[in-house]
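Mods, move this if it's the wrong board.
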Amino acid sequence: MKRLATLVLLFSLFGFQPPSYKMAKVKYNGGGDWYGDRTALPNLIKYCNKNLGTNFDSEESIVEAGSTEIFNYPFIFLTGHGNIIFSDQEAANVRKYLTAGGFLHIDDNYGLDKFIRPQMKKVFPELEFVELPPDHPLYNQKYKFNGLPKIHEHDGKRPQGFALIFKGRVVCFYSFECDLGNGWEDLGTYSGDTEETRQKALKMGANLVQYAMTQ
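Not the wrong board. Structure tokens:
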């Protein structure tokens, strides 16, 4: 404890503040690629720390859906293309986390939709995903958007931002036909990426973080 106190004092004397928060990617069962978008969260963290004044640890963490460690993270991110399964214990744990003030961003990396919807129904049997209108506060944080921006094209469908709302609070935001997380990755990760599109994705991501941290 003395060592920790000494380090904190040294940090403050030299103007360095240790990280206040961490972001985490959700590891789930079922065989889907939960580990996708490898550079996405570190880039979003860097962007938020620079442009929102947040103090997130520069490295992402990995947290399992059923772990009590989930409560250490104010913002968690779930992505993938394939199957996802929540056990009853995992669904109950995610529900407890979200109703206690946590925030989950689900990003369909293409092909996740048919798997994630029934699993989130396990978490909130009483709730349905609703599409947020363009004037919702989530789209109007530091950066102003007229709804969810389109980042990657798949099936020619419009991007949609869905939410699970519990007692008046958005506890889960689900980006569909958008590939927001892909837009946070290192420039050049995907052919045809532009810095303009990447900046748009990072700004929308920053809005999600700001909303999650202040609602």
